[in-house]
Amino acid sequence: MKTKVSRRAHFNAAHRLHNPNWSDARNKEVFGLCNNPNYHGHNYDLIVSVIGEVDPETGYLMDMKILKDLIKSEVENHLDHKNLNKDVADFSTLIPTAENIAKVIYDRLRPHIDQSKEIEVVLYETPRNFVTYPVK
Amino acid sequence: MKTKVSRRAHFNAAHRLHNPNWSDARNKEVFGLCNNPNYHGHNYDLIVSVIGEVDPETGYLMDMKILKDLIKSEVENHLDHKNLNKDVADFSTLIPTAENIAKVIYDRLRPHIDQSKEIEVVLYETPRNFVTYPVK
Amino acid sequence: MKTKVSRRAHFNAAHRLHNPNWSDARNKEVFGLCNNPNYHGHNYDLIVSVIGEVDPETGYLMDMKILKDLIKSEVENHLDHKNLNKDVADFSTLIPTAENIAKVIYDRLRPHIDQSKEIEVVLYETPRNFVTYPVK
Amino acid sequence: MKTKVSRRAHFNAAHRLHNPNWSDARNKEVFGLCNNPNYHGHNYDLIVSVIGEVDPETGYLMDMKILKDLIKSEVENHLDHKNLNKDVADFSTLIPTAENIAKVIYDRLRPHIDQSKEIEVVLYETPRNFVTYPVK
Amino acid sequence: MKTKVSRRAHFNAAHRLHNPNWSDARNKEVFGLCNNPNYHGHNYDLIVSVIGEVDPETGYLMDMKILKDLIKSEVENHLDHKNLNKDVADFSTLIPTAENIAKVIYDRLRPHIDQSKEIEVVLYETPRNFVTYPVK
Amino acid sequence: MKTKVSRRAHFNAAHRLHNPNWSDARNKEVFGLCNNPNYHGHNYDLIVSVIGEVDPETGYLMDMKILKDLIKSEVENHLDHKNLNKDVADFSTLIPTAENIAKVIYDRLRPHIDQSKEIEVVLYETPRNFVTYPVK
User: Fold this and answer.
1) Whose C-alpha in B27, C129, D120, E108 is 20 to 30 A from the C-alpha of E31?
2) In the CATH scheme, what is the homologous superfamily, with its name and number, of domain C3-133?
3) What is the structure's pLDDT at D98?
4) Is F75 helix (H, G, I), strand (E, B) or coil?
């Protein structure tokens, strides 16, 4: 039976939901207040989980210090105190919804964690709205 | 790979656990303090999740504003500040345990969300007792 | 300089806000959904604090085990899983608003704690609505 | 003895810390990442408390529904999903630090609440950084 | 479709991460501050979930009072206010990492819950580090 | 009117409550499970607040980055992953109760913060037990 280890992290960012292929009216209709051209922002809370087998010699599935540092270098340094639309290349052609941010975080972490292990990302845009990726 | 979006909501209600087919003594033995004939109550916290594919045009799996409004109309307006046993028809012949309330919420939401998407309900009766429905 | 020690506890109860000296119409206007004649309920969260000097021999202001047991006997056993209006004599002529429940809790604890120490009660009716008594 | 009633609310906003009387270098030195010219953002959590006497007829110090609606009209509608620097006139000449936002919220609410009652504002910029205004 | 009921509990304990087959230098390199020979400690938070069918007569999957008492007798009494390395036999030859503690808790509960039901343990070592066992 | 800024931090430690001037029997009677000779431990959560005037040029009462770094150097580095009784000189003759730990933290921070400003320390030993020092 497998085990899952999870690490919580956070970053603060500004964003705006806007599809450049649409009229301003349609953007406003679909995205409402989130379409504000001057941006708004969030404290994003993040849980990264890694699923696999526990190493009997260490009792660790993965050293949480290594996972913490990886989230720091690949996610927090990349997104914290940024304007997602203007400062982060991943969102130059991708709308920074919670769904898309979660997938970007997953794609950034995936190459750095052993392929025998699965990864799961939960991203809280607010304490009341959150996203999990991927889901089987 | 699928994504899951989740929305937290809440309602306050009174209830009593009582099986009318049983004697008072057996009800008291099985349900203890929860059998108080004058009712007691809870702040129920609710997480409704929807699982499916993200629409590339909006970056949304489902507009959280629509999910929020659906929970408001189908769950909060139906259960908030109510006596579940006396004011809510779903519980006229069903004991309002957390397990059964979670299923009632699922059944009320299911017809309003696209059948290609799965739904999951987590219901907190207290911060220490909670129920998830359905589980594969 | 004084120290304050605080202990968190909780209880679940049903209640109804209703002033018997008023018409039904005025009760409904003032108390809204909280006036439901069939009651509704809450998970009340409670923080009881005691303020005074630390005993140098024990390093305790007050043994938290004693405070915990006192809250159990005087508050939880008295209010948990009860209908405040029907089962609790303190509310036979007092409307069980959060303000009044906090004062009842204070009055029940006051005789059991050394008079040289101050007491403060914080009562959460929901995570978003709470009351502190007394305030200087 | 007085009582305090408290209501929790929240809003999301973008901001930038920048003093226009200073050089870019000094702004960057003092405000660090918070000086990002493209803005970043937060989920601000807010607790507004009102201190005074309880009305014996209602058992209320102040109707929480009225306080909730007042926070909605004076604070949330004014600040939610906004860029504090560009969209909110209060910050045209005032740096939107947590300290200053708390004072602006207090000043906006003060005229709407009976002068016999005191007001206290707690503003969480993140779960780890928060401000209380005023303090005696 | 199955239902999952979950109960939150907690215990406080001291521990040290140390593999007796390794040199002190390697232990320090792998386990860092967690290798402190004088121990450090945590408030462990625990969620035990049981998955199965709801009994139509009671509306319960499992009586939460029974689950609470079982966690008390099998987990809290066994681990609370203990030094995991020195006071708990399960860790005489097993390093008390969160991964291993979660498995020990699972193994202690498994014989006491009907085999037709699945069990899941989530163990928080801190609010930011937690483990789930087992995962399919 | 003054403002208060607050910063939350945390550390994990082992401790034992024991008065060396007392018999083992009296220690066990007064301190109960907390007297375990092999130690137990906690995740201590800490809120440090600073009270004073806001600087109109920065909008800051105190730069939270400076306060965060001060808590790191004076408190976290001193107490995190330590055995308070054996590894921390402050507790060589002082029982490490929450009351005394809060006072030690206050005394360590006081020389590093401008004397025109007041300091307040809240220390959570568990989410249910916490201490505030000093209180007027």
Assistant:
1) E108
2) 6-pyruvoyl tetrahydropterin synthase/QueD (3.30.479.10)
3) 98
4) helix
pTM for the structure as a whole: 0.96
Among A42, A43, A125, pick the best mutation site for testing chain D contact (most D Cβ within 10 A): A43
Query: Rounded distance, CA E101 to CA E11, Å?
Result: 12
pLDDT tens sequence across D19-75: 999 999 999 999 999 999 999 999 999 999 999 999 999 999 999 999 999 999 999
State the Cα–Cα distance between residues B128 and B77, nearest whole angstrom.
25
Which residues, including other chains, have CB under 8 Å from residue D49's CB and lie 6 or more apart? C132, D4, D5, D6, D7, D119, D120, D121, D122
Distance (Å) from the C-alpha of residue C129 to the closest C-alpha of chain D?
Answer: 5
Residue B46's pLDDT band (boundaries 50, 70, 90)? Answer: very high
What is the DSSP code (8-state) at residue F54?
P
**Cβ contact (<8 Å) for B127 and E8?**
yes
Report which of A107, A86, A106, A108 is spatially closest to residue A96, judged by C-alpha positions: A86
> Which ipTM value was assigned to this complex?
0.95
Task: Take residue A135 and report the two structure tokens written for it.
Answer: 């889901």
pLDDT at res. A111: 98
> Comparing C-alpha atoms, which of B41, B39, B43, B33 is closest to residue B16?
B39
E12-61 pLDDT, tens digit each? 999 999 999 999 999 999 999 999 999 999 999 999 999 999 999 999 99
- Pick the residue of A47, A130, A136 with the most B CBs within 10 A to test the interface with B by mutation: A130
The predicted-structure confidence for F41-54, as pLDDT tens digits, reads as follows 999 999 999 999 99
Q: Hey, are the CB atoms on F7 and D129 less than 8 Å from each other?
A: yes
Question: C88 vs chain F: nearest CA distance in angstroms?
Answer: 26
Give residue limits of the domains in chain A.
Answer: 3-133
In whole angstroms, what is the distance from residue C8 CA to residue C86 CA? 26
| E113 burial via Cβ count (<10 Å: 0-12, 13-18, 19+) | middle
Give the Cα-Cα-Cα angle F30, F33, F38 (nearest 5 degrees).
115
H or E element at residue E109: helix E98-109
